[in-house]
Q: What sequence folds into this?
């Protein structure tokens, strides 16, 4: 499923226009992104939690040359699925 498919499903499910559904999705993504930039967690009960994780600096290896390179420390976005999402995915098997 891509963004256009998601917009179609939200528009038909909520009985709103595709423009309104696209605006709702864009606003949601922007809100989650800005919260993560500030270092906040975003918890959607039943779905999951978006948070920031800190990765330490480490040494890596260039696969072409085999040379050792330094990989800088960085913050990364992390998603932890909620219990209900895990159950729903496992029921689909």
A:
């Amino acid at each position: 499923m891509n963004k256009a498919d998601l917009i179609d499903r939200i528009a038909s499910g909520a009985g709103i226009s595709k423009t309104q559904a696209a605006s709702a999705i864009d606003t949601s993504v922007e809100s989650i992104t800005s919260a993560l930039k500030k270092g906040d967690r975003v918890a959607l009960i039943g779905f999951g939690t978006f948070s920031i994780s800190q990765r330490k600096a480490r040494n890596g290896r260039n696969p072409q040359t085999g040379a050792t390179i330094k990989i800088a420390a960085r913050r990364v976005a992390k998603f932890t699925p909620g219990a209900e999402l895990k159950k729903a995915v496992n029921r689909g098997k």
Remarks:
- The radius of gyration is 19 Å.
- The chain has two domains: 1-39, 41-93.
